[in-house]
Design a protein that fits this description.
- By secondary structure, this protein is of the alpha/beta class.
- The protein has a single domain, classed as Alpha/beta knot (3-Layer(aba) Sandwich).
- It is 32% helix and 19% strand.
- It has a seven-stranded parallel beta sheet with strand order 3-2-1-6-4-7-5, with helices on both faces.
- It is globular.
- 34% of the residues are buried.
Amino acid sequence: MKNTTFHIVLIEPEIPPNTGNIGRLCAATGTVLHLVGKLGFSLDDKHLKRAGLDYWPEVNLQRWDSLEALQAAFPDGRFWYLSKKAAKNYTQVNFQKGDFLVFGKETKGLPEELLNSAGDMALRIPIFSPAVRSLNLANSAAIILYEGLRQTGQLADQ
């Protein structure tokens, strides 16, 4: 996994189509998909497979019992934590190849204590309407990943 451009980390995802769409995103970009903790569905789920279409064999999928186990396996990894509760806008940072982009479950996001300990590594995607509570998980992952690919010059080659 050392040649990987980015890593998307989903902590306890709940909705199969979101994970399926993110799996397809990872297959399209050579990004590793890490699923952490208890999933809200089976990896055999027909909705998960339908959303990922026939791309699942192309997804570099890794399973982890906990975020701590993942972080221990990558002690030098840079972990960015995405949340609507973060103060810093994702456009204010410089992503690097190999960064980990961490997203929480659809209904609750990332735990408050994790965000508090993340400090400047916690990022948000701006939402302009107070009527909208959050963006879709798959859309959020795509926004952040493609910004990272843009910043690291990987879109210029395509």
